[in-house]
Amino acid sequence: MEGKIISQAIKAVISQQEFIPIATIDKDGCPNVANKFMISLEGDNIYFGDFANGRTWRNLKHLPNVSIAVMDANNLIDYQINGKATLLNSDVDYNKILVECSSRQVRFVTKRLIEAVRKENRKIKYEVPLLEKVIIWQVKVDEVVELGPSAELRQQNDFFTRGKR
Predict the structure, then answer these.
(1) pTM, full prediction
(2) φ and ψ of 106, to 5 deg
(3) Domain for residue 125, yes or no?
(4) pLDDT of residue 124
(5) Full residue range of the structural domain in which residue 53 is found
(6) Which of 135, 128, 158 is nearest to 145 (CA)?
(7) CA-CA distance, 86 to 106, in Å (whole number)?
C-alpha cells in the first residue's frame, strides 16, 4: 500500500528500526518519550506495540497526538513524523498486525541470540513480552518534517498549522 505522505526513502529508514521513539504529552502538558517496538508500516500508517499500563498508553487515551523521530544516519537526514494514534481492536487488521508482530519478535530475538553467540556475550537479555500483554497502536501519519544536513527544512503537510493539535 503506497502512502501519500510517507515517501519510500522514509519508509526504508523506518522499516530498519526495531524500536521507534514515541513522544506524547499528558493532560497537564508534561512530555513523555519512550521507545516502542516497531511492528509494521503500511501506507501512511505506522503500527507499534506497547503495554497497557505505561505513561504512553495513559497519555494516548487522553490525547492521541504523537511525534516519532527517526534518522537516516547514512545521509544525515532527520525525520519528525506527526500523527494521531488509535488503539487497534480485535478485528481483521488487528489479527494481521498481531501475526506480523509475532514474526518480527522472533526475527529480533533470533538476531540478538546469533550476535550474542558470535561475540560470546552472555549478558544480553533475550526475553520478549508475551503477545497477550501487548497492545497495538496505529498511527495515522498527518505530517512529515525533514531536516537535512545543512539544516534545510521540508514539510509534507502541515499538521500543526491546520489546527489539528
Answers:
(1) 0.77
(2) -60, -45
(3) no
(4) 64
(5) 8-88+133-156
(6) 158
(7) 25
